[in-house]
């Protein structure tokens, strides 16, 4: 645990400079392996050789296992969280459809339909253009409000989590979803008392707590805190696998549950219970990933900066006039000591690529389903098979292929290095070559998938293109892990908050752009939205080509440790070990 007494700002430097006293140490990049439980902190294992060091969990060395943070604490509750989010999509849409359809026929001057409208039931009489248009407009308003408020809240949550911890804010992020589903439940149970337009208030509550975007970004911040750089991309990949599995099977399970119970209301009871379970688990059970000492240091640094800003008094009216709603994005363009133009280019390239990959998955998914049904005559069954196949392919890539790539590209080289008796000290030293190449391959796969979608003449070719697009899951996990390795640990939440803001903005802009484009071109050139999407992925691929490995935001402590400039040969062999064999490492700095 941390030292007793009030920590000072200098503790941040001391914390970063811990090292082993009995062996030569190197600053490891992504080729470093994860610490095993028996070898943490450079202790000897059964073979008598020291393992690679990572000081991220040094404050938790003396704590019991149930108070030690780990990504594995998150997997089950996060999967439940994504199941609840995915399970609510289709039932809520059908509920809104029946509400609006009933109101439409009640207000219409034409004869009422032969069959009455059942709230939440199968209503074929509602499949008319007038009702579909009203439903699309209403859901667009809901998504716009949620996305807009999330874009404001998520950066704030990210910054607060650096100072006060991740778990409590993760629990808070789900509270808005609970309120939104309770309003939906009440509107469905008492439709004559509570008008369906109250669902807009639920969207406001959801957006005020960051919605699904805040929950996802805070879980990634938690993972970055307790996972060494060598395994961070794979760990975030596990979270993405939970995400896509939950989004794929949530609607399926919800549909079967409604069929089994015979009531649409039953699924909303389960969804509310899932949200409450997630809040309870992350708020009271999961150990906090930031120690009290690290939180105190971050709070003191923030307080000092606040005092400096307060000394330069500016009237509040002038502050409001000069307020910039995009100010949280400034962290993606850092200036000052320890930064560089190459760092800024890397961060912007990664942020834009991530926004395109994640934004397209939210905005284009429904349009691709509409296009496939229009182009190939698919029904609900065929479209469901397509979504499930693509989601399962993405899950397999993240759970099996990605860990295998990490093992052969990072763990095995680290094992060979340890066989030479060299102990490495893991630090955030930017994306490594494997990160860069994975991102390039993933974005190239997305470009090829868009070409395949556009040229597909049958459903089988379309399905193959969708499986190729599943490679984008590799890119998203690698990008978000690489972003955290470009910045100091005390700015991870702030940076991921800015990324979350971009996700929220894409959630607002993307559906407007792609759904509007498809509606305007479906009669003349239905593939137009795929061409635009392919162009965006070309931008993401270009950004991946601009990435340079081993670029990071250097802190004061790291600058003091770098006492001499190494030649290219010394970077490989080591300044103090010129007689040793070459190490299979992209970048090594010997102390």
TrEMBL record:
Places the protein is found: Membrane
Transmembrane segments annotated in the record for this chain: 71-90, 135-157, 169-190, 196-218, 238-258, 264-286, 347-371, 383-408, 462-483, 526-547
Bilayer disposition of the protein: Multi-pass membrane protein
Predominant cellular place of this UniProt entry's protein: membrane
InterPro entries hit by this protein: MFS, MFS_dom, MFS_trans_sf
Keyword line: Membrane, Transmembrane, Transmembrane helix
GO molecular function: transmembrane transporter activity
Annotated ranges, domain Major facilitator superfamily (MFS) profile: 80-552
GO annotation, cellular component aspect: membrane
Chain residue ranges for the region called Disordered: 1-50, 558-578
Name of this protein: Major facilitator superfamily (MFS) profile domain-containing protein
Organism in which the protein naturally occurs: Clonostachys byssicola
